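Reading group handout, session on sequence-to-structure problems. Before we discuss, look at one worked example. The prompt was deliberately terse, the way you'd type it at a terminal:

> structure Glycosyltransferase

The input record follows.
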Amino acid sequence: MAEKEGNTHVVLFPLPGQGHIVSMLKLAQLLSTAGFHITFVHTERNYRRFLLTSSASHFHVPKFRFRTVPDGFPDDDTRSPLPFLELQESLDTKCRGHYRELLLAAVDEEWPPVTCVVADEVLPLSVEVPDELGIPVMILAPHSACSILTSYSIPELIRGGELPIPEAANMDELLQGVLGLEGIVRRRDMSIRAAKSIEDPFLRFELKMSKNLPRGRALILNTTESIDSLSLRHVRSICPTTYTLGPFHVLLRNIKDESHSASLSEEDRSCIAWLDSKPDKSVVYVSFGSLATMPREAFLEFQQGLLDSGYYFLWVIRPDMVEGGLEESELTASERRCFVKWAPQEEVLAHAAVGCFLTHSGWNSTLESIFAGVPMICWPFFADQLINSRFASEVWKIALDMKDLCGRGHVERMVKEVMSGEIGEELRKSSCEMADMVKKSAEEGGSSYTNFKELVAHIQSLSLPAERGGNVGEGMSVPAQGKSTFLMCST
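And the output record:
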């Protein structure tokens, strides 16, 4: 067994955005605990950003290496999250050949041939290139199972006339064509709700992205059987070999008792000392992730609503979060607030002083809040965040969904409801119950722990000659470079 582990080499290539990198890097660290050789592919810019963080100096994992590919943009380009199509085109034309060369040159005196690639579902070239080279591919979908189903159901929604959404339609009307989720998903909860025709680029992206799911030898999800039980049966009808290993960061700690940070931004730990000075369950933690931006007016409404609630709040405010930037005078002085550019989120959510998480409902943030047993107020921006917030409020009963609202009165009311009163007690009880289920999933004998062992065995089996039928570079022809028109997310 040790020899097989030593000859196993896994390449992982995430979409070059913070949320996807976090999920993929945690999975990479998990796979390294099996004794595998791990090659993690960063874009050149993101790797430089990673090296500037203190996390990089503490990242020491055996048989683990980073390799880089260009994203095709000038170094001084801001790589704004929009427009997606231009970024996709740049990655597809400027990165594809470099990625191919990386896979072909992956072998040296100390590193065996590539056993398989773990590809990001929403990064087409990470799937297509190894497939062309005859390298087995597994797919990581770094979002919730309910999000996967809503995307996969788009063709049926189009056939049924439910998409695109008509002008002046009731956005709270339930959709009937979402596989397994009838009676839950509203028009308002769809990531492509703004699409006016089937030629809308975001709608086309969702259609193409879902086609990647069945292409891999297996589908890997950062979730648990307990969280996504409603959706997983239907996901497995699409991808029979599906491994739920979540939450990755919890499973990693249970297996190796450590979890290296994957952040591309330096974490400001001064906020921990600030939290230490506050009573239990007295602080609202606010973070809208690494990509989302908001108008200045929305920021000011959130700030005033938080102040009017009377609770302490810790708010992550990235320099690029508010459109047009913020003046120092617009940050209201108050002993009840703490602003940081980036926070050690897992540690913050685990802190006794935190009583509520005002979040964008990104999947990593949602999982971290679930594990910590912290109820949420959800204000999603785009993509899977819209369906995550719906499930958090209506299915899991661990959050209030404030989707599409940001007036100071709404903010004040929802903060008070979650931090105190009957609604808050019910949400906290449900959050603690779900946290307990998630913790058990990641313990030895739990579903995530068991599924991880099965995934390791599956990957090891791909090293066998009968399964692979030869290794790259050993008499295999290399097809001509292809062309993809998938849409990409931000770096």
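Points for discussion. First: The chain has two domains: 2-263+441-468, 270-440. Second: DSSP finds 21 helices and 13 strands in the chain.
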